[in-house]
Amino acid sequence: MNKSEIARQYREKYPEFPTLKLARIMYKENVLMFRDIENARERLRYIEGKSGKDKLRKSVTSSEFYKIDARPKNPYSLPASDETAYEPFKISGHKRVAILSDIHAPYHNIEALSAAITFCKKEKPDALLLNGDTIDCFKLSRFVKDPRKRDFKFELDTFKSLFEVFEKQLKCKIYFKLGNHEERYEHFLFEKAKELVGIEEFDFENIIKARARGIEIIGDKRYMLLNDLCGIHGHEYIGGISAPVNPARGLFLRSKVSSFQGHNHQTSEHTEPTLTSKMVTTWSLGCLCELHPAYMPLNKWNHGFAIVDLDSNGIDYQFRNNRILNGKVL
Predict the structure, then answer these.
(1) Nearest CA to 305 among 288, 283, 326, 281?
(2) CA 123 – CA 154 distance, rounded (Å)
(3) pTM of the predicted protein model
């Protein structure tokens, strides 16, 4: 895929974003393709018909992406801001998405994960969302570490093998959401190897992409949109999701919109109507890792995963939250 094709893909996905804002996102997610943010911006301007040799020969409005940028909202010429753009990641163009959360490789549960894959194969999703904590990153954590546990390289090798299984068995687009365990890598660099921060070869996203060709990374604690359904891993809120009654109700109290999360390793659902009779439902997903790890042998965890069917109207959806017990999907 060349630069113009990438630019077209992002402009189609985010038609309302200002060019510079979209260029920042496009560069960050394709740092090996573009020289810098300005290079990404130039490519966007080109496919929008605002630059290049064709601009002098024909009207720029002939470009399907032509858009008049809004006047900058800075009437007082305030100093440039270093504010970070925070926008949802839209998972669009799919009819059915399988969601696997909290695999924690290499501490995955083979029986539960096998059951989930078998079920998903029958459902034939056209996308798979790995919703955070796919890799455990045990040795990179700030906690006291058991020296007998597997190292980071082994975890990456295990992930590569898992990805190959997903790719072969499900034959669909795969998304990789960063959870709190994947963020351990960046925290490790900040604390132990500051000199490596910013070097492309040591960027976590590039490490994953080198082992999983075609995978799409969802980072920066961005929430996701699947039609009108919001999704998070569960660590995005400061302090996480407290769980009065169950994690789904805790998510409802924080998000106030229909949404799903992993992170708590527990299957639950909560529904409340609004004053205008709109139904708001939140879900938490079960995990696909070991249920009784040494650091928390007693807990309320269960195995599970989800399937979401997306209506072509871009709004409606059907969410199926599945539990797994003794290797059987319930």
Answers:
(1) 288
(2) 31
(3) 0.79
